[in-house]
Design a protein that fits this description.
alpha+beta, 3 helices, single chain, 9 strands, six-stranded mixed beta sheet
Length: about 150
């Protein structure tokens, strides 16, 4: 099972050998300064966003790899048992979002990351919604007009 660690000034996601093989990549490393928000998602499947790009997706068993969406790319290493540590990253990071199933207490792992990251956004304990490219204020008005016809 993957582990989230803080090494020097980096957040490191260390994958098990099976997860490395499934995700087609080794360790994921991002600077701590790019960490924007850390939350815990109680339902592992809610952490999945977008469509699978690279990796292995076995429903109910393992989701490991890169996922793409209108806002960019996410990296996930998820198992269906237990909560998931979700890390939102700033635009300078290689990914927009990391979702990792960790062994043990996910809340404690998330709290440790919050203490280590220098500039966490603590305005809300919830993840921010995924941006949708075609969603604008005028598109909502157009949709309302279409529904009234």
């Amino acid at each position: 099972m993957a582990r989230i660690l803080v090494r020097d000034d980096d957040l490191v996601v260390r994958l098990s050998w099976r997860e490395r093989a499934a995700a087609h990549r080794g360790t994921v490393r991002v600077p701590l300064t790019t960490v924007r928000r850390v939350t815990v998602e109680p339902d592992w499947w809610r952490a999945l966003r977008g469509v699978a790009l690279h990796g292995v997706w076995i429903p109910g068993v393992l989701s490991a790899g890169t996922r793409g969406h209108a806002g960019g790319q996410d990296f996930v290493a998820l198992r269906p048992a237990g909560p998931v540590v979700c890390v939102e990253l700033r635009s300078t990071a290689p990914f927009d979002f990391l979702a990792v199933s960790v062994p043990g207490d996910a809340q404690a792992a998330a709290e440790g990351l919050r203490r280590s990251a220098p500039d966490i956004d603590a305005s809300t304990a919830w993840r921010q919604p995924l941006p949708v490219a075609e969603e604008t204020e005028t598109s909502w008005r157009e949709l309302d007009m279409y529904r009234k016809r």
